[in-house]
Amino acid sequence: MSISILAIESSCDETAASVCRDGTILSNIIASQKIHEQYGGVVPELASRAHMQQIVQVVDKALHDSKCEIRDLNGIAFTQSPGLIGSLLVGSQFAKSLSLALKIPLIAVHHMQAHVLANLIPSSTDGVPDPKPSFPFLCLTVSGGHTQIVLCETATEMRVIGETMDDAAGEAFDKSAKLLGLPYPGGPLIDKYAKMGNPDRFKFPEPQIPGLDFSFSGLKTAILYFLQENTEKNPEFIRENLPDLCASIQKRIVSILLNKLKKASVQTGIKNICIAGGVAANSELRKAFEEKGIKNHWKTFIPKFEYCTDNAAMIAITGYYKYLSADFASLDVVASARAEWI
Ligand code: KG4
Ligand code: ZN
Question: pLDDT value at position 184?
């Protein structure tokens, strides 16, 4: 019997739905919320309203594109945590209602575990299947809210062995972008301008944090003081040097991430290494990760671009593995803004 899972993701500002059959993604629909741009960040109340407005069409389209009949679904997976509580509630109530109406299991998914398992989504390049990591593997998960090194023993057993003590890598990108006067979310814009800049022009400090944990707040402060000092001397400093500033900031964030990842590999002896999360869409991180992999004899894996930033395909693949181990949630499961691994 084949297993079809409908998955819903609504943890932040993307309303997303996906259908997977036996671990293969049949559809992957995302409605992004543009409304937040004018506020320089996600406004939680507006995000939940937008989810309410979009969720029916998004789920309908995911089902339609998958050519899967609603009566053929075997389970409904949804993002239970972490995220904005009002946003999570929209997706979780929708998933619960469907599970109840269709009398099929409900599967609660942890958003960060799903980012890690995006690496297991079957994909191909020019018709050739991409290799996938075997267990155990390490995953550097870098998003707008988290920065973690995860040791993954199986699809359902993983633990965090290093994480940020303050800002996430995505926040380091977005906050740096804000200091440069760029709109939210600034990460992709830093990536874009950096392509035209010299990454060695400005040197920003690398924090000396023991162990496998990260810290980005010192870097942010260093950038702030550096920009203040230089714009006092030349008010046009940022405008005249934007590509070099972006390239230099990006280079430092990427080196902080990859130096810790190397330390984790040495400590654990694991050389199957993945990256995941929205910041894994960063072109310099992808390139530098591959280069570091060649140098250190790692087998490296990066999800397809569309599976790095928030999406429901990663919820679907996680839901599929949880379905296989009969890890179902009851209807009184509650969405949670912050949650332990589930
Ligand atoms: O995983 P994600 O889509 O959402 C969360 O779960 O947070 O990650 C969003 C983060 C944002 O901080 C965004 O600026 C960053 O990923 N991001 C990037 C790039 N694309 C997305 N950062 C740097 N370069 C990119 N190309
Ligand atoms: Zn995410």
Answer: 85
Structural domain containing residue 266: 133-303
CA angle, 303 as apex, 158 and 192 as ends, to 5°?
A: 125
d(CA 338, CA 211) in angstroms, rounded, equals: 24
Together in a domain, 138 and 258: yes
Among all chains, which residue has been given the structure tokens 């942010």?
220
Mean pLDDT of 122-134: 95
| pTM given for the model | 0.94
Count of C-beta atoms within a 10 Å radius of residue 85: 17
Atom of ligand 1 minimally distant from the CA of 277: 1
Assess whether the C-beta atom of 277 lies below 6 angstroms from ligand 1: yes
Ligand 1 pocket: which of 88, 119, 143 to mutate (most atoms <8 Å of CB)?
Answer: 143
CATH number for the domain harbouring residue 213? 3.30.420.40
19 within some domain: yes
Q: Which ligand is nearest to the CA of 314?
A: 2
DSSP state of 296: T
pLDDT in tens, 272-325: 999 999 999 999 999 999 999 999 999 999 999 999 999 999 999 999 999 999
**Does the pLDDT value for residue 339 go beyond 90?**
no
Q: Which ligand 1 atom is the nearest neighbour of the CA of 112?
A: 6
